[in-house]
C-alpha cells in the first residue's frame, strides 16, 4: 500500500507517526499514546490579598470665582416626612415552619409635585426578601428541611399637601398664542356709490405668533426610609398523617401591617446669585503670592 502520514494533535499529547503501511500505523498508534490523568483540584476557591501602603499627596491651590456669579443649582423647596400605612397578604410557594429573616428595601418610583395645587404624588414599593424554613422529614422529637427564599414587591402610594419650608417653586410661565391681521381697502360693487370702499381686515390670510416656555420640573431626593412591620402567620395547621413535634404547625399565608416613614427633599433647579467671597490661603506662604 501507499505510504501515509498520520498527524495527531491533542491537548496533552502531540504525536507524529510515519509508517510504510496501514498495519504499522495502527500498531504504533496504540503503543505510543499515553493518557494523562487530570490533576485534581485541592480547593474550589482561591483568595489572594495584599496589604497596600499609604501614598503621599500635596494640596493643589484652588482657583475659584470670588467676584460673584449667577449659578443654576438645585434649590430646596421643602423637606418632609411622609407616612404610609400598608396592609398586605403574601402567599408562600410552599408550606413553611417559620420565618428566618426578612430583608427590606424601600424604592420610590414616582414623586411629582403638581404646581398650582401644592399636591405631591408619591408611589413606590417595598422589596422584601423572605427566608423561611420548610419541612422535609419529621417525627415527634424533631424535624429537618431546607431554607428557601421568596422575593416580593409590596406597593404603596398616596398624595400629600406640601408645606414649603424652604422656598416656593418658581411661578409657571404659560405658553402664548396671538393672532394678527392687516388692514385692506377694496372697491365695492355697483350697488354702492363710487366713492364708497370696503375697509376691513384681510380675510385671505392667517397670521399668528406662538411662544413656548419650558419650566423647570421639580424633583425629589430620598433622605431616609423607616419600616415598622407586624407579621402574622395565617391558617397554621398540622398536616394529616404527619408526625410533628409539640406545637409545630405549617402555614403558607402571611398577613403584614407596615408603617412606612419616608423622609425626602423636594428640589428645583433655579438661578441663584452668589455674592463675592474672600479667598483664603491654605498656607502662610500662599498668602504672599500675587493672585
What does this structure look like?
The protein is mainly beta and about 290 residues long. It contains two helices and 14 strands.
Given the helix and strand composition, which structural class is it? mainly beta
Number of extended strands: 14
Tally of alpha and pi helices: 2
Low-confidence stretches: 1-8, 10-22
* End-to-end CA span: 96 Å
Strand fraction equals over 45%
Cα radius of gyration in angstroms: 41 Å
- Order of strands, widest sheet: 3-14-13
Give helix and strand order, one letter per element, not per position.
EEHEEEEEEEEEEEEH
List descriptors.
single chain; 291 residues; mainly beta; three-stranded antiparallel sheet; 14 strands; 5% helix; elongated; disordered N terminus
Characterize this entry briefly.
The protein has 291 residues and is mainly beta. The chain contains 2 helices and 14 strands; from the N terminus they run E-E-H-E-E-E-E-E-E-E-E-E-E-E-E-H.
SSE layout:
Elements lengths: L3 E6 L4 E6 L2 H11 L36 E28 L1 E17 L4 E15 L3 E3 L2 E3 L2 E15 L14 E5 L2 E5 L9 E5 L5 E5 L7 E16 L16 E24 L9 H4 L4
Antiparallel strand pairs: 1-2, 3-14, 4-5, 5-8, 6-7, 9-12, 10-11, 13-14
